[in-house]
Design goal:
This protein has 255 residues and is of the alpha/beta class. The protein is built from 11 helices and 10 strands. The strands form 2 sheets. A 6-stranded mixed β-sheet has the order 1-2-3-5-7-10, sandwiched between helices. Strands 4-6-8-9 form a 4-stranded mixed β-sheet. The chain is globular and about 65 Å long.
């Protein structure tokens, strides 16, 4: 059985974690399949936006017990290889040229919360979605996702979530800037797909370039960022999408 399902409806691709019996808990196999799915779907020209979701009652409830047992018994080199695989999976989501929307309908805990964190947008159910970085409770640390998290919500709230290991509901996650939107649970799928449909109307090349910039400018000085932005601005003008969009706009104004 595949641990990750991929479907396409129009320009919307969906990646579904398919371990409902384990609450989609991360294993080395699931991490590998997620990595492959994002690389594969990210390269598809017919897909403009990707929705990430989980089957069953949870989005992703962290790491499963067998996985935790394995990493506790691994050699240092084996754990380094496994940690590298996790990092590369997260980075595949970040580097995906398509906007990625996490649809969180239940628990997104530890690595599952990290997975939501690295998505471009996160839409969550008001009553059932739950977010938290629980690693320090068992003597572990959310090391890889912490690098992304502090860039997303800042040092103060990252310290709160990581050091308290508390779980928070969707409304609080929205207030902290961890997620994008809260909707009634009954409307979660429809609203997520509505947002995906809106995004799918946009230019693929423009969204890809915008994602590249969002990832790059955070580590730049003001002068370096503006120089980079000037170059990207010039490059965007040369794309087929930009030329077609300008021509269409000019035709509308003439009419």
């Amino acid at each position: 059985m595949s641990l990750v399902l991929q479907t396409i409806d129009g320009a919307i691709g969906t990646i579904t974690m398919n371990r409902a019996d384990k609450r989609n808990a991360l294993s080395s196999e699931l991490v590998a399949e997620l990595h492959s799915a994002f690389v594969t779907m990210g390269l598809r020209e017919d897909v403009k936006v990707i929705v990430l979701r989980g089957s069953g009652p949870a989005f992703c409830a962290g790491a499963d017990l067998a996985y935790l047992q394995k990493i506790s018994e691994n050699s240092p080199l084996e754990n380094l290889a496994d940690s590298t695989s996790l990092k590369e999976m997260f980075q595949a989501v970040v580097d995906c040229p398509k906007p990625v929307i996490a649809m969180v309908h239940g628990a997104a805990i530890a690595g599952g919360c990290g997975l939501a964190t690295v998505c471009d947008l996160v839409v969550a159910g008001r009553d059932k979605a739950l977010f938290g970085y629980s690693e320090v409770r068992i003597g572990f640390i959310p090391a890889i996702v912490l690098v992304y998290l502090v860039r997303k919500i800042g040092d103060t709230q990252t310290r709160r979530l990581v050091l308290t290991a508390e779980n928070i509901m969707a409304e609080e996650a929205l207030r902290l800037g961890l997620i994008t939107q809260v909707v009634d649970d009954a409307d979660l799928e429809d609203e997520t797909m509505r947002i995906a449909g809106t995004i799918a109307k946009n230019s693929s090349s423009a969204m890809t370039m915008s994602k590249m910039m969002l990832g790059a400018v955070q580590g730049m000085s003001l002068d370096a960022g503006l120089h980079y932005a000037t170059v990207m601005n010039a490059l965007a003008r040369q794309t087929d999408d930009c030329k077609a969009g300008i021509a269409s706009f000019l035709n509308l104004t003439k009419g």
